Structure formats: structure tokens, C-alpha cells
Amino acid sequence: MKRWIAIIALLLGACGGGTNDKTGTNQQIVSLPDLTAYEDYAAHLSTDGQRAVFMSRRENGAYRAYAFDAAAVPELKKIADIGPLVEGEQEISVTLDEVGEWVAVERQLGNSHYLLVSNWSGTASGKVDLSQKSEVSQISLKGGLLPLVAYSERIGRATISNVLQITVAGPRLTLASIGAFSGEDQPYLSTDASGKTLLYTATVAESKVSWRARTYDPASGTWTVQGTPFVLPSKSQEVSASSRGLFYIRTLATLKTKTKLGSNTDRPEGYVPVVGVLDSLSQYDPFGGTTVDFGAAEYLNYEPLTLSSVSASHDGAYLLLTGNDTYFCKTRSQTFNSLLLVRTLDMKVIPIFIVRDEADPAWTAVDTDLCPYFDQIDPPPVVKVFDTNIAKAVLGGTDGTTFHLAYESTASRDREVYRLDFKVDDWTMRTLSSVAIKNISNNIRP
Predict the structure, then answer these.
(1) Which residues are within 8 A (CB) of 336 and not within 5 positions of it... i.e. 6 or more apart?
(2) What is the pLDDT of residues 394-444, one digit of tens each?
(3) Using an 8 Å Cβ cutoff, are 48 and 404 in contact?
(4) What is the pTM of this model?
(5) What kind and span of H or E run contains 269?
(6) Which CATH class is domain 1-14+31-235?
(7) What is the DSSP letter of 61?
(8) Among 43, 48, 53, 107, CA closest to 75
(9) Domain boundaries, the chain
(10) What are the tens digits of pLDDT across the range 82-114?
(11) CB of 132 closer than 8 Å to CB of 111
């Protein structure tokens, strides 16, 4: 979370806008507006796509957590409406469980530092006091019959991951510890294939990270380590947890190549038909189940040149990737930040490009191939605008046909959060229907 805040601060420092006023000395005075008020980011989406939480700076640059509910009027509300804020208090991060039942938000002001946990309606809440000097690097929630919240607290070099059971007792929540793992960080809650509670944690040693998985037996109150720990060479790798293990991005030590995407069949002398890939996707499966084949031909064909995020469905059957790639079409080459939907059963891939008509400011459609549009000459094509600025995406859920996801985009100069829903009609032909795109952050600059 704090990494995202730093990135946003860097972006804001690098961009500007305003008016020019020429003086008698031919110098320009530039007035820069406060752009932080239009930054919305770090979204979490429920499996049905109806509920979401995200961070926003719309209140004079203060860090605030917001909740979106498609069934409510109004659809958007502040988390502070559930648990009031003290003046000057900042909300550092917010998260949502998979079914949209529970919300957790980290807050801090001076000596006050705590984690607020609430049900979605706000009728019951409780808090966990945290050390003033601690840093919370990860918060995770699990709903269902055994609702849990897990968080890591780091003070200096000392780290502990805590797991608390959530119990409703009138207007208050009871948060009782069912596990504390000293020296372990970045807890992710999930469920295994049999429905047992699953916890992933990481131990950081120098520059390496050792991941392990545990399952929980509520009858005995015990945690059991599954498989053997798995070591990643860097602590900066992005991961996504599922019942089939962790999916993670790794930077390749040596460059690999793939065939260029696109329709460019005009190959002059000296044409290079391949392009270099910098990042790769891998899986840590502590259960020894079916390993996802990231060497499948179709996946390798569409594998992005670089990857910025991975989000797995809870059963690990689908992956949503955010990456950067270049399409080499007959009339032009175009580099994109775009989305890839992957079905892990057979590694079928559907590229997703967000589209709008040039005359319409609203994003209304998706394409799965760029070249038919770019290569159209007669009749002249309808002018379209593609969103090339997707920064991060999360897969909320799917029934195998209908998909719900949320993504961040800076296409409007500001960082906004969108929800995208669609049906996959045919994986082989890559045809989609029932596409709906909604700006759920609803924080558009005038």
C-alpha cells in the first residue's frame, strides 16, 4: 500500500498543468493545480462485482478509504461513515473480503495507530490497536462461515503476522487471535480445494523471500504447514493467492524472445521477427496439484513483454494480468498497457483493450485484437481511442462465463478506478458480449 502512495507522489511530482503569464521580462510564471484530489487507487472487488473498496485523495489530498455498492443509493460512501475519523487522522490502506461482507482499514494519527474492522453495513465494528512505530505491510480478509482478518506488523527488523477470528456481538466485533507467526510477513488468506482456511506468509532473509502455506483446523485450533517453503530471489515480486497456490511475477535473469504480435507480413530485409520478454509468471503450489503450464504455446505467444500485476480467481482457474506489449500491424506499431485474461486449464488467452469512440468521453467497449482496426483502409475506419494507460487490475470473480474485474487507469491524466463486466462467448475466437464499464471512483476533474 505504502509503495502505491510513493509511486503516486512520484507521478504527481513529474506532471503539471496550469496557466502561463508572460511578464515584461519574457519569463513565464506557471501556476500548478493540486492534482492529488483526483487520485483513486488500490481497489478490491467482491466476487460478484457488486461491491468494492479503494483509496482516494479527493478530500484536499487527505488519504481516505471509500466503498462502492452497486445496490445502494448513493453507490459511493466513505468508510468514515462507518467508523468516524478524528480530525487529522489518515487512512493508510483498505481491503475487502472476497464476498464483500467485511472491510478493514488501517488508520493513524500521532500516537494513535489501529486497524478498524467492520461488517459491510457498518452495524458492527471493532478495532485492533497497533504500535505507533509499526508498519503494516499487508492486510487480508476472508469471509464465509469462519470470517478472519490477517495482518503483518513490522517494528524495525521484527515482524509478526497475526490472524484474528471475527465474531459479531451486537454492535461490536470480537477479534480473537487464532494464530501469531513471529518473523513472518505478508499474510494472504484463502481457502484450499477442500474449503479449509489457507494462510500464506513470507519470511524475508536479506534479499530473498521464503513463502510457506498453512491450513487451519477450527476443531483443534491448529495450523498445519503444507508442502515445503518456496524461495523467491527478491522481496519485490508481486504475488496473488489462490487455492492452487501463489502466482507471482519474476524478472528474468536472461532475456528471452517471442514472436512479434500483429498482422505485419511485410518484412523488409533486416526485419527481426522476435521481441524480448523481460518478466515471466510462475506458480508456487504447496499441495502438489496440477501445475499451470506457463510454457504453453498460446500463452507464450501473448505473454507480455513486461508484467506489472497478477490477480488470480480464488480457485486459481483464471488469471488477470496487467502488462505492456507491442502490436506490429501492417500500418503501424502500437505499444500498450493492457489486460490479459488467462484460463489456466488449457492456457487460452484473451487480450482485453478498453475502447471508446473519439466523440464519446465514456469508455464503452472492449476489443480483443488491435490490427483489424489499425489496418482498415477502405472504407475509412471509425476513429477510436484505446486506453493505453491501465496501471493495475484485480479479478473479482467469475462463474466461468461472466467476469467481474476492476482496473486503474490514468487515461484522463488522473488515476481512476473502473469496474469492467463481460461474458466470454468463445475462448478460441476471443469473442466477448454484455460488456459494461463503469467509473466507480466517480472523481472526474471538472
Answers:
(1) 324, 325, 326, 327, 353, 370, 386, 388
(2) 999 999 999 999 999 998 888 999 999 999 999 999 999 999 999 999 998
(3) yes
(4) 0.89
(5) none
(6) mainly beta
(7) T
(8) 53
(9) 1-14+31-235, 237-446
(10) 788 888 899 999 999 999 999 999 999 988 999
(11) yes
